[in-house]
Amino acid sequence: MEETIHITVEDQHGEVRQLEIPDGINLSLMEVLKASEYPILATCGGMALCATCHVQVLAGQEKLEPRTEAELDMLDTLPDADDHSRLSCQIRLTASLDGLKIRVSGNN
C-alpha cells in the first residue's frame, strides 16, 4: 500500500494547511508548493540559483538531508535567512519527511 506524506504549510499570512502527497511522487517540495498554489516563484527552475523558493522549517529539520554548498551560498544572499531556512527546490519528498512543518517565506 502506498504511503502518504503529510506536510503542514503555513503561508505568509499565517494560514495553515496540511498537504497530503503520495509517497513515490518523485517531486521536490518546491514543485508541490507551486502545484498547491503557494506564491513560490522558483525563477531558476529548481537549480538552487535564485532563492525564490525559500521556506522556514518549523518542525522536522532533522529529517532533511544536509544543505549543499550551492544552497548555503544562495541562502547567504537572503537578509531573513537563518538556521531553519531551506530552499524548497532542494528538498526531495520521501516518506521519511512525513510530519514536516514549514512556513513559506513572504518575500518569494
UniProtKB/TrEMBL annotation:
Q: Which Pfam families match?
A: Fer2
User: What Gene Ontology terms describe what this protein does at the molecular function level?
Assistant: 2 iron, 2 sulfur cluster binding; electron transfer activity; metal ion binding
InterPro entries, A to Z? 2Fe-2S_ferredoxin-like_sf, 2Fe-2S_ferredoxin-type, Adrenodoxin-like, Beta-grasp_dom_sf
Tell me the Gene Ontology biological-process terms attached to this UniProt entry. P450-containing electron transport chain
Which cofactors? Answer: [2Fe-2S] cluster
Question: What SUPFAM superfamilies does its record include?
Answer: 2Fe-2S ferredoxin-like
Q: Where is the 2Fe-2S ferredoxin-type domain?
A: 3-108
Q: Which UniProt keywords apply?
A: 2Fe-2S, Iron, Iron-sulfur, Metal-binding
Chaperone is among the record's keywords: no
Instruction: Note the PROSITE patterns from the entry.
Output: 2FE2S_FER_2 (PS51085)
Q: Which Gene3D superfamilies match?
A: 3.10.20.30
The source's domain of life comes to Bacteria
Tell me its family.
Answer: Belongs to the adrenodoxin/putidaredoxin family.
Name of protein = Ferredoxin, 2Fe-2S
Q: What is the lineage of its organism?
A: Bacteria, Pseudomonadati, Bacteroidota, Sphingobacteriia, Sphingobacteriales
